[in-house]
Design goal:
Radius of gyration: 20 Å
Structural class: alpha/beta
Largest sheet: 4 strands, parallel
């Protein structure tokens, strides 16, 4: 149960008319979710326990968020014949795979839609595209509603530029590469959940949706705004880290594109709660407790 899956599971649980379950890799995470009233099954992508399919086939909706593994690909689809056999005799009606806008590769900063051919450059993006195709084929074979959601950079409560700044965390190599781009597509987790719910309410066949906001702003701009929000809310200044601004090499155009979300708006009627990072970050900071209280008490 990843960030998006967990957020959506809680939304469904709150709705009251869903039986929600999922998978995780550790006993500690399993216990944490049990406290929230959601039972998880242990599942290791490295060495899957295929008996889990006996449980999965009883469910009507399946959301797949496990990323592909290097040199292996999608850990579930590597035994696709068994998966097809088990699910074909079950209750499955709706299948969704969470992918990434990285499958588009480089379009030189131009806008891309779902009609643009994917051209992944990195190994991870190539594996994502292969997983998309595999899940779409499986859904077609099973005769169930199947969709792929290509997500931009995911953020939300506990996982945002504000959290990174407050924790004084350094960016990963992937994040550093993003920091040098002119355009970075992103999406608030609440809007991902909106899209998921809409795709359940309006099921389709072999449909692909870009799930991003309206503002593919550069990462540097986002962090600058996050700094301003922190200073406004708590009247405190954060020491800015050099990593926010030092990775703007001219050669960073690899993977530049602006991703359009018009299709999910037109087809599913989704109206974004957070059409820009500004709205999303404001909603996060407004709900946060004062992170400086423990520091002030010392």
């Amino acid at each position: 149960m990843g960030f998006v899956g967990g957020f959506f599971a809680e939304k469904l649980k709150e709705a009251g008319d869903w039986a929600v379950s999922g998978t995780c890799r550790s006993d500690s995470k399993k216990k944490d979710w049990e406290k929230k009233g959601i039972d998880l099954e242990l599942f290791s992508a490295d060495s899957p326990e295929w008996s889990l399919l006996e449980t999965v086939k009883d469910y009507t909706h399946l959301l797949v968020s496990i990323p592909p593994l290097a040199n292996i690909g999608d850990p579930v689809l590597r035994n696709v014949e068994l998966v097809r056999e088990k699910l074909s005799s079950g209750n499955l009606r709706w299948l969704c795979y969470l992918s990434s806008t990285s499958v588009y590769g480089d379009y030189g900063g131009a806008w891309v839609t779902e009609d643009h051919p994917p051209n992944p450059k990195t190994q991870s993006a190539k594996l994502r595209l292969a997983a998309e195709e595999g899940w779409l084929r499986l859904g077609n074979d099973l005769g169930v509603s199947t969709q792929v959601l290509r997500l931009g950079g995911i953020y939300g409560p506990g996982r945002s530029a504000i959290d990174t700044l407050l924790k004084r965390e350094h960016l990963s190599e992937t994040q550093l590469r993003r920091a040098s781009r002119r355009f970075t597509s992103r999406v608030h987790v609440e809007d991902i959940c909106q899209a998921l719910q809409a795709s359940i309410d309006k099921p389709s066949s072999r449909e692909i949706y870009n799930i991003v906001d309206d503002d593919p702003a550069p990462r540097e701009e986002v962090f600058q705004y996050a700094l301003e929000l922190i200073e406004q809310r708590w009247k405190r200044k954060i020491e800015t880290k050099p990593f926010l601004y030092e990775s703007r090499e001219e050669s960073s155009l690899r993977g530049e594109k602006r991703v359009s979300n018009q299709h999910v708006k037109d087809k599913l009627g989704v109206k974004l709660l957070h059409p820009s990072y500004k709205s999303g970050l404001r909603s996060i900071v407004e709900k946060m407790d004062n992170p400086f209280l423990s520091t002030d008490a010392e």
